[in-house]
Fold this protein.
Amino acid sequence: MRTPTLLLLLTLTACSSAASNESNPGDATPVDDDGNPIPTDGSPAPLCTGVGTGFAAAPRRYALPAPRCSTSFDALGKSGSLAYSLLDLDGDHSTDLVVYRDSCSTEIGRARWDVYAGGADGFAAAPSSYSLPAPRCSTSFDALAKSGSVGYALLDLTNDGRSDLVVVRDSCDESVGKDHWDVYPGGDGGFAAAPTRYALPAPRCNTKLDALGKTGAVGYTLSDLTGDGRVDLVVHRDDCEAAIGRERWDLYPGGEGGFAAAPAAYALPAARCKTKFDALGGFGAVRFSLLDLNADRRADLVVYDDSCDEEIGSKRWDLYAAGATGFAAAPAPFALPAARCGSKFDALAKNDALGFGLLDLSCDRRPELVVHEDTCDDSVGGKRWDVYPGEVSGFAAAPQSFALPAARCRARFDKLASGYGELGFALLTLGESRGRPSLVVYEDACDAAVGKTHWDIYEAK
Ligand SMILES: [Ca+2]
Ligand SMILES: [Ca+2]
Ligand SMILES: [Ca+2]
Ligand SMILES: [Ca+2]
C-alpha cells in the first residue's frame, strides 16, 4: 500500500472530534479531567487546547493481542503471511488493529477481517469478526486496497464516519468505473453483502473515472472542496479542455447517491511564475499543495515555494483560501518563522539538516510547524521539539518547547516517525486519547517485549 509518511501522520494524528460532552452545571467554566474547558453551547468539546508542553517522560503500556501465525504486532502494519493495518474501521474515533490476511486462516480476507478494537489500555485480546462481501471477479478483499483487475479502496462515501469498501473498477463488469462505483457500506460487524451504486459523471476526454485519482490526459483527485465532509471529485487537468487547470477546475460534488452528473466551475488563481495550477503541485517552479490551513474543512491551495519569489518559503507561504466557488483570486500571506540552521521552510516537511513537519498539536485542526531535528542545536530531537503554533495568519514567529522522552536503545526522537533502525515509533492517537497524538514505540531492539506484549505510549501533555 502506498502510504507516504506525512500523509500517514496527518491522517492518523488528526485530532479526533469525539468528545465527552459531560458538563458540570454548577461551574462557570466547566473543565474536563485535564483542566481543559468544555463548551456549553453543544458544540463538540475540543480534546485539548494549546500545543501542550511535551510528551510524558515515562511510557505507559498499551496491550497487544498475542502474536498470530507466528507474527508479532511489532509494526504499524505488515503485508506478509500476516497482513494487518491500523484503521478506525468502526468510526468510533479510536484506532483498531485490523487483520486482513492470515496465511494460517483462509477465512481471513475471503469471508472476514479480524478487528482488535482499540481501547484505553490496549487492543482487545480477542478479535471480533468483520464480514466481507464475496470475492468479485476472482479477487478477494484480502488487502485494504487493490489496483489490479478489480480496483478498490476504503473510503467513507456514505458520510457516516465509517470506512466503506469502494470498488472503482472490475474487469468482469465494464459498467463499474464507467457510470458508477460499487459501494459496500461499512456497518456493525461488517461491510454490506451487496453493493449500492454510487453514480459517476460520464468519462471525459476518453478517460474513465475508474480509479480514486489519475494523472495524464485527465487528471483528477478526490478532495472535499465543498466542506461538507464528503469527498468531491475534482478534475484539475483535461487535455480536451484547455481552461481546466488554467482558469478553473471542474468540481463534481459528492452527494448521497453519487457525484453530481455535471461539474461546477471552481475558479483558480492566475498562473504564477509561468506555472498553471493544472496538477497537484509537489514539483516544478511553483510548488504547492492542497491543505486546509484555515481550519474550515475545505482544502486550500497553499504555495510554499516559488522560484520567481524569494519570499515564498523564507518569509511566508501564499494561501489561496478555498471558497464556495473557487480559490481566492489573490493569496493571503501566511507568515513563516525565520530560516534555521541555513534551512528555509520552503516545503511541508523536510528531513535534512533541519527536520520539520506539520502536525496539529492543539486540536483546532490548524497544523503546527514542528521542528524535530536541527543539526545546529543538538537539544532539538534530544530534549525537545520546537513547535511554532499555527495561527490565523501564519505560524508563530517564536517556537514553544515540546519536551521529549530520553533517547532509548541509542535512538533519539528526532523524527516524527521512524521505521528503521533500533527503534520503531510514530505519532498516533490510540484509545482514550485527549486528542493530541502520543509518541508510540512499537519496536525496540533493546526490549523484546515491545511489539510482542505491548507498545509503549508517551502521552502528550
Ligand atoms: Ca461510511
Ligand atoms: Ca464535499
Ligand atoms: Ca480551508
Ligand atoms: Ca493546531
